[in-house]
Structure prediction request, 368 residues.
Amino acid sequence: MTLLLFTVGSVQASSIITVESKGSSARTVLGSTVIPYKEVTLTAQVPGRIDVVSGDVGSMFSAGDLLVKINDDNLQAKRRSVLAVLDSAKAALSNSEVQYQREVVSPRSKDITGMPGMGMPAMMDIYMTRPFMSKMLGDSDDDYNRYSDLLNKSTGVAQAKSNVMKSWSSLNAIDAQLKNAISTAPFEGMVLQKMVEVGDTVQPGQPLVKFGYVKYKRLRADIPSILVQSLRKDMEVPVVINGTIKTNAKVSQIYPIADAARHTVTVKFDLYTDVKASPGMYAEIYLPDRGKKGTKVLVIPKTVLLKGRSLPSVLVINEKGKSELRLVRLGNAQGKDKIEVVSGLSAGDQVINNPPTDAVSGFMPLND
Prediction:
Protein backbone atom coordinates (compact mmCIF):
# COMPACT_ATOMS: atom_id res chain seq x y z
CA MET A 1 0.00 0.00 0.00
CA THR A 2 2.84 2.33 0.84
CA LEU A 3 4.54 1.56 -2.48
CA LEU A 4 1.34 2.40 -4.38
CA LEU A 5 1.04 5.78 -2.67
CA PHE A 6 4.69 6.56 -3.47
CA THR A 7 4.15 5.74 -7.17
CA VAL A 8 1.06 7.88 -7.38
CA GLY A 9 2.86 10.75 -5.71
CA SER A 10 5.73 10.47 -8.18
CA VAL A 11 3.37 10.45 -11.19
CA GLN A 12 1.41 13.43 -9.93
CA ALA A 13 4.69 15.38 -9.58
CA SER A 14 5.27 15.06 -13.33
CA SER A 15 4.03 17.69 -15.74
CA ILE A 16 4.18 18.69 -19.38
CA ILE A 17 6.20 21.80 -20.26
CA THR A 18 7.21 23.50 -23.50
CA VAL A 19 10.81 23.73 -24.70
CA GLU A 20 11.80 27.38 -24.79
CA SER A 21 14.54 29.25 -26.59
CA LYS A 22 16.53 32.13 -25.21
CA GLY A 23 19.11 34.52 -26.56
CA SER A 24 22.75 33.65 -26.07
CA SER A 25 25.79 35.66 -27.04
CA ALA A 26 28.16 34.00 -29.45
CA ARG A 27 31.20 32.38 -27.89
CA THR A 28 34.59 31.26 -29.10
CA VAL A 29 36.40 28.26 -27.68
CA LEU A 30 40.17 28.60 -27.22
CA GLY A 31 42.76 26.21 -25.87
CA SER A 32 44.85 27.00 -22.80
CA THR A 33 47.20 25.34 -20.34
CA VAL A 34 47.05 24.96 -16.57
CA ILE A 35 50.07 26.68 -15.00
CA PRO A 36 51.24 27.27 -11.42
CA TYR A 37 50.39 30.58 -9.77
CA LYS A 38 54.07 31.45 -10.16
CA GLU A 39 57.00 29.56 -11.62
CA VAL A 40 60.79 29.99 -11.68
CA THR A 41 63.63 28.22 -13.47
CA LEU A 42 66.73 27.82 -11.31
CA THR A 43 69.99 27.95 -13.30
CA ALA A 44 73.62 27.22 -12.46
CA GLN A 45 75.62 30.26 -11.36
CA VAL A 46 79.00 28.50 -11.12
CA PRO A 47 80.56 25.66 -13.14
CA GLY A 48 81.00 22.26 -11.56
CA ARG A 49 79.63 18.80 -10.91
CA ILE A 50 76.19 18.22 -9.40
CA ASP A 51 76.49 16.73 -5.91
CA VAL A 52 72.87 16.90 -4.69
CA VAL A 53 69.46 16.98 -6.38
CA SER A 54 66.72 16.88 -3.75
CA GLY A 55 63.47 15.02 -4.32
CA ASP A 56 61.84 14.21 -7.63
CA VAL A 57 59.26 15.76 -9.92
CA GLY A 58 56.20 16.45 -7.79
CA SER A 59 58.13 16.74 -4.52
CA MET A 60 57.03 19.58 -2.24
CA PHE A 61 59.49 21.88 -0.47
CA SER A 62 59.32 24.81 1.92
CA ALA A 63 61.00 28.14 1.28
CA GLY A 64 64.76 27.86 1.86
CA ASP A 65 64.99 24.08 1.42
CA LEU A 66 67.97 22.77 -0.56
CA LEU A 67 67.11 21.79 -4.13
CA VAL A 68 70.45 21.48 -5.97
CA LYS A 69 74.09 21.66 -4.80
CA ILE A 70 77.12 21.98 -7.08
CA ASN A 71 80.48 20.61 -5.91
CA ASP A 72 82.48 23.41 -4.25
CA ASP A 73 85.79 21.73 -3.33
CA ASN A 74 87.75 24.06 -5.62
CA LEU A 75 86.05 27.12 -4.15
CA GLN A 76 86.73 25.93 -0.61
CA ALA A 77 90.44 25.57 -1.45
CA LYS A 78 90.50 29.09 -2.87
CA ARG A 79 88.78 30.37 0.26
CA ARG A 80 91.44 28.85 2.53
CA SER A 81 94.14 30.45 0.38
CA VAL A 82 92.45 33.85 0.61
CA LEU A 83 92.13 33.47 4.39
CA ALA A 84 95.89 32.90 4.64
CA VAL A 85 96.55 36.03 2.57
CA LEU A 86 94.12 37.96 4.78
CA ASP A 87 95.91 36.87 7.97
CA SER A 88 99.24 37.95 6.47
CA ALA A 89 97.77 41.32 5.46
CA LYS A 90 96.40 41.85 8.97
CA ALA A 91 99.83 41.11 10.48
CA ALA A 92 101.48 43.55 8.07
CA LEU A 93 98.93 46.22 9.00
CA SER A 94 99.58 45.71 12.71
CA ASN A 95 103.33 46.05 12.15
CA SER A 96 102.89 49.20 10.04
CA GLU A 97 100.75 50.84 12.71
CA VAL A 98 103.37 50.06 15.39
CA GLN A 99 106.15 51.49 13.22
CA TYR A 100 104.13 54.65 12.63
CA GLN A 101 103.49 55.12 16.35
CA ARG A 102 107.19 54.55 17.05
CA GLU A 103 108.07 57.29 14.59
CA VAL A 104 105.62 59.65 16.28
CA VAL A 105 106.96 58.94 19.79
CA SER A 106 110.65 58.47 18.92
CA PRO A 107 111.55 60.21 15.62
CA ARG A 108 114.27 58.53 13.64
CA SER A 109 115.65 61.92 12.57
CA LYS A 110 116.55 62.68 16.20
CA ASP A 111 118.03 59.30 16.98
CA ILE A 112 121.52 59.87 18.46
CA THR A 113 122.68 56.70 16.70
CA GLY A 114 121.24 57.72 13.38
CA MET A 115 124.36 59.53 12.09
CA PRO A 116 127.38 58.97 14.36
CA GLY A 117 130.15 61.50 13.75
CA MET A 118 133.84 60.82 13.79
CA GLY A 119 133.80 58.49 16.78
CA MET A 120 132.90 61.30 19.18
CA PRO A 121 130.56 60.81 22.11
CA ALA A 122 126.89 61.01 21.25
CA MET A 123 126.20 64.29 23.03
CA MET A 124 129.08 66.01 21.28
CA ASP A 125 127.85 64.42 18.03
CA ILE A 126 124.43 66.06 18.40
CA TYR A 127 125.63 69.55 19.32
CA MET A 128 128.88 69.78 17.37
CA THR A 129 129.36 67.23 14.61
CA ARG A 130 125.84 67.24 13.05
CA PRO A 131 125.48 71.05 12.90
CA PHE A 132 128.97 71.30 11.46
CA MET A 133 128.27 68.65 8.81
CA SER A 134 124.89 70.22 7.97
CA LYS A 135 126.39 73.62 7.42
CA MET A 136 129.32 72.24 5.50
CA LEU A 137 127.28 69.92 3.24
CA GLY A 138 124.10 71.99 3.18
CA ASP A 139 121.91 68.89 2.60
CA SER A 140 120.14 68.30 5.91
CA ASP A 141 116.90 69.76 7.32
CA ASP A 142 115.68 68.19 10.56
CA ASP A 143 112.05 69.29 10.13
CA TYR A 144 111.85 67.99 6.56
CA ASN A 145 113.52 64.75 7.57
CA ARG A 146 110.90 64.28 10.28
CA TYR A 147 108.05 65.01 7.84
CA SER A 148 109.54 62.54 5.36
CA ASP A 149 109.84 59.81 7.96
CA LEU A 150 106.25 60.31 9.17
CA LEU A 151 104.93 60.25 5.61
CA ASN A 152 106.85 57.06 4.88
CA LYS A 153 105.40 55.29 7.92
CA SER A 154 101.84 56.55 7.28
CA THR A 155 102.11 55.39 3.66
CA GLY A 156 103.08 51.96 4.91
CA VAL A 157 99.98 51.91 7.12
CA ALA A 158 97.73 52.96 4.21
CA GLN A 159 99.19 50.27 1.94
CA ALA A 160 98.72 47.63 4.63
CA LYS A 161 95.08 48.68 5.09
CA SER A 162 94.56 48.49 1.33
CA ASN A 163 95.95 44.94 1.27
CA VAL A 164 93.59 43.94 4.08
CA MET A 165 90.59 45.39 2.23
CA LYS A 166 91.69 43.66 -0.97
CA SER A 167 91.87 40.34 0.87
CA TRP A 168 88.43 40.90 2.40
CA SER A 169 87.00 41.62 -1.06
CA SER A 170 88.50 38.41 -2.41
CA LEU A 171 87.02 36.49 0.50
CA ASN A 172 83.57 38.01 -0.05
CA ALA A 173 83.75 37.10 -3.74
CA ILE A 174 84.57 33.48 -2.86
CA ASP A 175 81.72 33.38 -0.32
CA ALA A 176 79.32 34.70 -2.96
CA GLN A 177 80.40 31.93 -5.33
CA LEU A 178 79.93 29.36 -2.59
CA LYS A 179 76.42 30.69 -2.01
CA ASN A 180 75.72 30.47 -5.74
CA ALA A 181 76.76 26.81 -5.70
CA ILE A 182 73.59 26.08 -3.70
CA SER A 183 70.08 26.48 -5.15
CA THR A 184 67.29 26.70 -2.58
CA ALA A 185 63.51 26.91 -2.89
CA PRO A 186 62.56 30.60 -3.25
CA PHE A 187 59.08 29.88 -1.89
CA GLU A 188 56.84 26.99 -0.86
CA GLY A 189 56.12 24.87 -3.90
CA MET A 190 56.70 21.82 -6.08
CA VAL A 191 59.44 20.61 -8.39
CA LEU A 192 57.85 20.76 -11.84
CA GLN A 193 60.79 19.56 -13.93
CA LYS A 194 64.34 18.30 -13.35
CA MET A 195 66.97 19.07 -15.99
CA VAL A 196 70.01 17.54 -14.23
CA GLU A 197 70.96 14.52 -12.17
CA VAL A 198 73.72 13.85 -9.64
CA GLY A 199 77.07 13.62 -11.44
CA ASP A 200 76.17 15.91 -14.33
CA THR A 201 78.61 18.71 -15.15
CA VAL A 202 77.01 22.11 -15.60
CA GLN A 203 78.07 25.55 -16.79
CA PRO A 204 76.80 28.97 -15.68
CA GLY A 205 73.35 29.67 -17.09
CA GLN A 206 72.41 26.01 -17.57
CA PRO A 207 68.86 25.22 -16.27
CA LEU A 208 68.72 22.95 -13.23
CA VAL A 209 65.07 22.64 -12.12
CA LYS A 210 61.70 24.29 -12.67
CA PHE A 211 59.93 25.16 -9.43
CA GLY A 212 56.38 26.43 -9.01
CA TYR A 213 53.86 27.55 -6.42
CA VAL A 214 50.94 25.18 -7.00
CA LYS A 215 48.64 25.92 -4.09
CA TYR A 216 46.88 28.26 -6.50
CA LYS A 217 46.67 27.55 -10.21
CA ARG A 218 46.02 29.53 -13.34
CA LEU A 219 45.20 29.13 -17.00
CA ARG A 220 47.40 30.76 -19.61
CA ALA A 221 46.06 31.39 -23.10
CA ASP A 222 47.18 33.31 -26.18
CA ILE A 223 43.99 35.06 -27.27
CA PRO A 224 43.44 36.82 -30.61
CA SER A 225 43.58 40.56 -30.09
CA ILE A 226 40.04 41.02 -31.44
CA LEU A 227 38.66 38.83 -28.62
CA VAL A 228 40.63 40.54 -25.86
CA GLN A 229 38.37 43.58 -26.22
CA SER A 230 35.53 41.61 -24.63
CA LEU A 231 37.57 40.74 -21.53
CA ARG A 232 38.11 42.74 -18.38
CA LYS A 233 39.90 42.03 -15.12
CA ASP A 234 37.99 39.89 -12.56
CA MET A 235 35.53 38.79 -15.27
CA GLU A 236 34.54 35.11 -15.02
CA VAL A 237 34.37 32.81 -18.04
CA PRO A 238 33.39 29.12 -18.37
CA VAL A 239 36.23 26.63 -18.77
CA VAL A 240 36.51 22.88 -19.25
CA ILE A 241 39.71 21.26 -17.94
CA ASN A 242 40.96 17.98 -19.33
CA GLY A 243 37.62 17.46 -21.06
CA THR A 244 35.81 16.59 -17.82
CA ILE A 245 36.15 19.33 -15.21
CA LYS A 246 33.68 22.15 -15.81
CA THR A 247 34.15 25.32 -13.80
CA ASN A 248 34.68 29.06 -14.09
CA ALA A 249 37.93 31.01 -14.18
CA LYS A 250 38.54 34.66 -13.35
CA VAL A 251 40.57 36.99 -15.56
CA SER A 252 43.62 37.94 -13.47
CA GLN A 253 46.06 39.48 -15.93
CA ILE A 254 45.88 40.81 -19.48
CA TYR A 255 49.27 41.52 -21.02
CA PRO A 256 49.49 45.10 -22.34
CA ILE A 257 51.43 44.13 -25.47
CA ALA A 258 50.36 41.82 -28.31
CA ASP A 259 52.61 39.36 -30.09
CA ALA A 260 53.62 41.08 -33.33
CA ALA A 261 53.93 37.83 -35.29
CA ARG A 262 50.81 36.00 -34.12
CA HIS A 263 48.64 39.02 -33.20
CA THR A 264 47.67 37.44 -29.91
CA VAL A 265 47.64 38.70 -26.34
CA THR A 266 48.61 36.54 -23.37
CA VAL A 267 45.87 36.37 -20.74
CA LYS A 268 45.99 34.59 -17.38
CA PHE A 269 42.92 33.27 -15.56
CA ASP A 270 42.77 32.31 -11.87
CA LEU A 271 41.16 28.97 -11.00
CA TYR A 272 39.22 28.28 -7.81
CA THR A 273 41.27 26.54 -5.13
CA ASP A 274 38.96 23.51 -5.02
CA VAL A 275 39.49 22.71 -8.71
CA LYS A 276 41.53 19.53 -9.08
CA ALA A 277 43.92 20.29 -11.90
CA SER A 278 47.64 19.75 -12.43
CA PRO A 279 50.10 22.02 -14.22
CA GLY A 280 50.33 21.13 -17.89
CA MET A 281 46.71 20.00 -18.30
CA TYR A 282 44.80 21.17 -21.36
CA ALA A 283 41.79 23.41 -20.82
CA GLU A 284 39.19 25.02 -23.08
CA ILE A 285 38.08 28.58 -22.42
CA TYR A 286 34.71 29.87 -23.64
CA LEU A 287 35.04 33.55 -24.47
CA PRO A 288 32.30 35.96 -25.57
CA ASP A 289 32.76 37.12 -29.16
CA ARG A 290 31.30 40.57 -29.67
CA GLY A 291 32.15 40.39 -33.34
CA LYS A 292 29.39 37.84 -33.93
CA LYS A 293 25.65 38.17 -33.55
CA GLY A 294 23.98 36.30 -30.75
CA THR A 295 22.11 33.10 -31.47
CA LYS A 296 19.07 31.40 -29.97
CA VAL A 297 19.63 28.33 -27.87
CA LEU A 298 17.14 25.76 -26.59
CA VAL A 299 16.90 25.49 -22.83
CA ILE A 300 15.21 22.89 -20.64
CA PRO A 301 15.15 22.34 -16.87
CA LYS A 302 17.60 19.70 -15.71
CA THR A 303 14.65 17.87 -14.14
CA VAL A 304 13.41 16.98 -17.64
CA LEU A 305 16.28 14.53 -18.13
CA LEU A 306 15.56 10.90 -17.33
CA LYS A 307 17.66 9.74 -14.40
CA GLY A 308 19.91 6.70 -14.49
CA ARG A 309 20.39 6.70 -18.28
CA SER A 310 23.84 6.31 -19.85
CA LEU A 311 22.90 8.86 -22.53
CA PRO A 312 20.88 12.02 -21.91
CA SER A 313 17.27 11.41 -22.93
CA VAL A 314 13.83 12.97 -22.46
CA LEU A 315 10.18 12.05 -23.01
CA VAL A 316 8.67 14.12 -25.84
CA ILE A 317 4.93 14.38 -26.59
CA ASN A 318 4.37 13.37 -30.23
CA GLU A 319 1.62 14.44 -32.63
CA LYS A 320 -0.60 11.64 -31.29
CA GLY A 321 -0.43 13.06 -27.80
CA LYS A 322 1.68 10.20 -26.49
CA SER A 323 5.19 10.34 -25.02
CA GLU A 324 8.19 8.87 -26.78
CA LEU A 325 11.81 8.50 -25.70
CA ARG A 326 14.29 10.77 -27.46
CA LEU A 327 18.05 11.17 -27.08
CA VAL A 328 19.38 14.71 -26.83
CA ARG A 329 22.79 16.32 -26.99
CA LEU A 330 23.47 18.76 -24.20
CA GLY A 331 25.50 21.95 -24.18
CA ASN A 332 26.52 24.29 -21.41
CA ALA A 333 24.68 24.91 -18.19
CA GLN A 334 22.35 27.91 -18.27
CA GLY A 335 22.28 29.04 -14.71
CA LYS A 336 21.82 26.71 -11.78
CA ASP A 337 18.73 24.73 -12.84
CA LYS A 338 18.69 24.75 -16.65
CA ILE A 339 20.85 23.38 -19.43
CA GLU A 340 21.29 24.02 -23.14
CA VAL A 341 20.09 21.45 -25.69
CA VAL A 342 22.27 21.35 -28.79
CA SER A 343 20.27 18.79 -30.75
CA GLY A 344 17.31 16.42 -30.37
CA LEU A 345 14.62 19.01 -29.63
CA SER A 346 13.04 22.02 -31.30
CA ALA A 347 11.57 25.19 -29.87
CA GLY A 348 7.92 24.59 -28.94
CA ASP A 349 8.30 20.85 -28.36
CA GLN A 350 6.45 19.53 -25.34
CA VAL A 351 8.37 17.36 -22.88
CA ILE A 352 7.58 15.69 -19.57
CA ASN A 353 9.18 17.42 -16.61
CA ASN A 354 10.25 15.45 -13.55
CA PRO A 355 9.44 11.98 -14.96
CA PRO A 356 9.78 8.98 -12.62
CA THR A 357 13.00 7.00 -12.78
CA ASP A 358 11.34 3.98 -14.45
CA ALA A 359 9.41 6.03 -17.03
CA VAL A 360 9.42 4.71 -20.61
CA SER A 361 7.78 5.66 -23.91
CA GLY A 362 4.03 5.99 -23.47
CA PHE A 363 4.21 7.34 -19.93
CA MET A 364 1.91 10.31 -19.35
CA PRO A 365 1.34 12.41 -16.22
CA LEU A 366 -1.93 11.63 -14.45
CA ASN A 367 -3.02 15.26 -14.48
CA ASP A 368 -2.70 15.52 -18.23
